UniProtKB/TrEMBL annotation:
Domain Methyltransferase type stretches: 184-267
Organism lineage string: Eukaryota, Viridiplantae, Streptophyta, Embryophyta, Tracheophyta
InterPro entries to which the protein is assigned, alphabetical: Methyltransf_11, SAM-dependent_MTases_sf
PANTHER family: METHYLTRANSFERASE (PTHR43591), OS08G0411200 PROTEIN (PTHR43591:SF46)
Domain of life: Eukaryota
Source organism: Hibiscus sabdariffa (roselle)
The protein, known as: Methyltransferase type 11 domain-containing protein
């Protein structure tokens, strides 16, 4: 059984041993401060909405025996110890309302609502919140979240992005070595690729992560609108059109590398301003100024992305180009 979770969370998430069933997850997380764990892994994620969806894998998937004591596969964002479920509410799409999770170390309790689990370190605070760079906060707004799949995303084709279905097929080619395992859809937005991963039945866990709670609400709503969408309920990480949105790609990719199993695959799409743009004077200075103001990234070459992956412990870098669009893939070295 597979599951999908949409999570509006600013906490630590561990997509390791959720339960005997496989799962798909969507979480709201800081784009640059996400730590995942497999088995006893702990992932530091800022997430706010969590929903699960059930799918049927195309091949049997070996799942470890569920831990005793209500183990969830999630971890406390404060002390990184595993969180235990202290309520009977299941962890899957539309059923997280009333889900209470307890850290047995620091004794903090985290609560869920219909669409997500709030697992951030500041969970439960009434007044305190943290703002992110302009480019990140932009996608937290309800208007942009609503428009993202209703016109915004469609404009990516002008930069060479091939469209969701084609891009999904391209990603699957890179992900063949880990089919049947777990996948994280980082910066999932409104969940377009998360839903494709979940409905494909190719993965036991699908974990969708995003910083924007409004994006995750859209993700939840899209799941609810789909007929026969699996709703019960990390070998790979996918980040579609996301790398350039992360304030610190090196921190994010380092975390991705840390949580991937040996041989695990990272697949991402973004854009590169090369070709005729490379001849623009002061381009690198202009890039630094833009990044300093907006918090978003501008990549100028394939080699830059390859160096990023290599510096973060990933090997076997490959890429596919179409205009400004680029899909990259790299793998964690086998031990």
């Amino acid at each position: 059984m597979n599951s999908v979770i949409t999570g509006n969370i600013r906490p630590t998430f561990f997509p390791g041993q959720l339960n005997k069933n496989s799962a798909h997850f969507l979480f709201r997380v800081r784009p640059f401060s996400t730590a995942f764990f497999r088995r006893n892994l702990t992932s530091e994620i800022r997430v706010f909405s969590t929903t699960f969806a059930e799918t049927k894998p195309t091949a049997p998937v070996a799942v470890e025996k569920e831990d005793s004591g209500g183990a969830t596969g999630l971890a406390c964002p404060i002390c990184y110890d595993p969180l235990a479920r202290i309520s009977d509410s299941p962890l899957y799409v539309g059923a997280t309302a009333g889900s209470n999770l307890l850290c047995n170390n620091c004794k903090k309790t985290y609560f869920g609502n219909q669409t997500h689990l709030d697992l951030v370190a500041s969970s439960g605070s009434k007044q305190y919140d943290e703002s992110m760079p302009l480019a990140t906060e932009f996608f937290r707004t309800p208007v942009i979240s609503f428009l993202y799949e209703r016109g915004w995303l469609q404009n990516f084709v002008f930069s060479g992005f091939p469209g969701p279905e084609k891009e999904f097929d391209m990603a699957k080619n890179y992900l063949k070595p880990v089919l049947g395992g777990n996948i994280v859809d980082a910066s999932c937005g409104s969940g377009m690729f998360t839903r494709l991963f979940a409905k494909s039945g190719l993965f036991s866990y699908v974990i969708a992560l995003d910083y924007s709670e409004n994006m995750l609400r859209q993700c939840y709503e899209f799941i609810e609108e789909e007929n026969n969408f699996p709703k019960d309920s990390v070998d790979a990480v996918h980040a579609g059109a996301a790398l350039h949105c992360w304030p610190s790609p090196s921190i994010a990719v380092a975390e991705i590398s840390r949580v991937l199993r040996p041989g695990g695959v990272f697949v991402a799409t973004t854009y590169i301003l090369d070709g005729p743009f490379a001849f623009l004077p002061f381009l690198r200075t202009f890039r630094e100024n833009i990044m300093g103001i907006s918090g978003s990234q501008i990549f100028l070459s394939e080699r830059e992305l390859e160096d990023l992956c290599r510096a973060c412990g990933l090997a076997g870098f490959t890429c596919i180009r179409n205009g400004l669009f680029v899909m990259i893939s790299a793998r964690k070295r086998s031990s």
